[in-house]
User: Which sequence fits this backbone?
């Protein structure tokens, strides 16, 4: 079993109030718009980090991450990118990537809007953790916490902080 923290859109600022939630995580996944390599380095001091770059990320972050990552966590096939859209309105090229890679869990960021939706068409769970940083129109900072046990995604919790 793995305990996962999922965040996105930190835009160079990781709120210290989130830190206690990161402590028991086996892995932290960042869905892009990291903003500053220090955010990534600080997360890596906590536990294993898997991250993709976003549209605001510079060449330093892009050299340390990729546009897409596809991996297995326990028995769950995971696909993460920054700009992905959501079920019924996937961004250009995403539907084809989903059809090819067949993830059970598809994660993206970018919108700053927290969404967790089951996509019946592709038989996958779509997650967007919203925005954990200070930049953007969101009024609440959010991250997701969940467990992956074999092929099961369980114990999903939303952690919210006022800006």
Assistant:
């Amino acid at each position: 079993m793995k305990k996962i923290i999922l965040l996105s859109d930190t835009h160079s600022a990781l709120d210290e109030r989130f830190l206690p939630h990161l402590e028991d995580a086996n892995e932290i996944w960042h869905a892009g718009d990291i903003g500053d390599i220090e955010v990534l380095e600080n997360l890596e001091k906590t536990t294993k980090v898997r991250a993709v770059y976003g549209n605001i990320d510079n060449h330093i972050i892009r050299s340390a991450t990729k546009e897409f990552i596809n991996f297995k966590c326990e028995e769950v096939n995971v696909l993460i990118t920054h700009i992905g859209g959501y079920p019924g309105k996937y961004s250009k090229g995403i539907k084809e990537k989903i059809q090819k890679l067949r993830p059970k869990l598809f994660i993206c960021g970018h919108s700053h809007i927290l969404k967790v939706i089951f996509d019946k068409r592709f038989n996958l769970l779509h997650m967007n953790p919203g925005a954990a940083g200070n930049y953007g129109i969101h009024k609440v900072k959010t991250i997701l916490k969940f467990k992956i046990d074999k092929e099961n995604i369980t114990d999903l919790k939303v952690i919210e902080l006022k800006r």
